[in-house]
Design a protein that fits this description.
Blueprint (H helix, E strand, L loop, with lengths): L9 H15 L3 H22 L4 H18 L9 H19 L9 H4 L3 H9 L8 H17 L2 H12 L4 H8 L3 H24 L3 H12 L8
Helix pairs in contact: 1-2, 2-3, 2-4, 3-4, 6-7, 6-8, 7-10, 8-10, 9-10
């Protein structure tokens, strides 16, 4: 995704673990640094997945930061600290939609997913009639959740193709692939997105509940990939 943190290297890992250790030891400056860096990044992350609803985004970010504080001692440096926090934020977003008793779980998959292009384009479009606003937000959330769970190069290829409108030649250059190889990546990415979107539309909680169980058994909240 476009807001994904940079890859973790040994130096960054050590710095982040040291920052977390200091915060856990009561160092107010370290704690404030974590919160000040996290809040705006989490707001951007959540806002895209909540159709830029500022009030709901603020609520989700606040809930995420509470969970971050409660679980900071579980951070092990296996991903970037921001990725770890984005994983917590993703679960809070899903919990929000689950509480709304979203109707996406009861829609016909063939109707809710007319195509990859339509689903991705709808997620970036404006509002329709007032009665369509909730449906638009639900579809947007499903699209972003599906993209979040795809391999990063699949997600980026789909965004470049369907949201930015780039030609395959340009996508191939960005991926540092030959044209045919890039076309193959797009084909696999479309298939993976379609299957995952349909799975989430049928039951948006199943995949995340499974991830939460796995992560809890490992003793940590999840991180964004």
């Amino acid at each position: 995704m476009g807001d994904a943190p940079t890859p973790l290297d040994d130096a960054s890992r050590s710095q982040e673990l040291e920052l977390v250790r200091r915060a856990l030891d009561g160092d107010r400056e370290a704690f404030d640094q974590i919160m000040e860096q996290a809040a705006p990044a989490l707001f951007r992350f959540a806002s895209r997945r909540l159709n830029h609803d500022r009030e709901t985004t603020r609520e989700i970010v606040q809930a995420t930061l509470v969970k971050v504080v409660e679980n900071l001692d579980a951070f092990r440096g296996e991903s970037r600290l921001m990725s770890w926090m984005c994983g917590i934020c993703r679960f809070e977003i899903l919990a929000h939609y689950r509480a709304k008793k979203r109707e996406a779980a009861h829609t016909d998959v063939d109707e809710s997913l007319p195509g990859v292009h339509q689903a991705l384009a709808a997620s970036s479009g404006g509002h329709g009639r007032p009665g369509e606003d909730l449906e638009h937000r639900e579809r947007t959330a499903l699209v972003h959740l599906a993209l979040d769970h795809l391999p990063e190069h699949y997600a980026r290829a789909l965004e470049w193709k369907y949201l930015e409108g780039l030609p395959v030649k340009e996508i191939a250059a960005r991926l540092e692939l030959e044209l045919k190889a890039a076309e193959s990546v797009l084909t696999r990415a479309r298939a993976a997105f379609r299957a995952l979107f349909a799975e989430l539309a049928a039951d948006p909680t199943t995949r995340v509940d499974s991830e939460i169980t796995t992560q809890r058994s490992a003793g940590r909240p999840g991180g964004a990939q």
